[in-house]
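WARN no homologs supplied; continuing
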Amino acid sequence: MKYRKNYLKVIFQLKFDPILELQNSEPVQFKNKIKEQFPHLKLGRRITIKAEIKGLNGKEEKSKTPMTIEEIQRIWTFSDKDNIVLVSVSANDFTLEYNKYQDISTMDRDFDFLWSQFQTIYNVGILSRVGLRYINQINFSTGDPLDWKGYISSDIIKAVLGITVPDKHRLGRSTNTIFWLGDDHRIKFQFGIHNREFPNPIAKKEFILDYDCFSIDPVDASEARKHLKYYNELIGNAFEQSIDKKLRKEMEPIGTQSILMLKESQ
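OK structure emitted
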């Protein structure tokens, strides 16, 4: 199914062994190769915290210095002029992110360009992890915030709203997490009503369908795009099983096949 509208934020990330050059200096060559399409640069830092837990007489106790900074890693994020498409690089990973997703063909094109430029400089051989995440943040300005019949599949609605709320209480948040295990990958599926205004009661009509598909074994770097296509298909199929005809109509199917499938479901 293809749609004219979506509610997506998309993240595609490749992880690899540390690149020493990126541990010590700015990716100047990479910046110069992509600056025309991605002119804006922002430097960030990823801080890894190590927590120490010590056992005493069978009980867990925090040590006197329970948290220490294990690593501070620099991250360079390049963005297009509208800050819609971002590519981030660090010594350990390469991430392509869309604040507003268009379609897989656009993502393929962007990834091919960016990853090829990155590889001409750093020549990564093996990827320790390949991950594609599609976060659907479905928001409506009006409507009962607990009524998702016809929009979300009945199985998911039951999992999120099927438990009776105790007397004199109101629902504040309801989210679930499921893992699906493939032979060479995993899919972490998080879904439900997160409620951005928590701990206030749910007042806005919002639903999250969050699919994170990732490899479990090392991957040859030359197959990164193959995994992007494969994971996109897996997530697309899972998404179609998660939604119902009213949401499909809201998203405006495009193409003859998509429209016919929508009509058949009505």
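The chain has a mean pLDDT of 90.
OK
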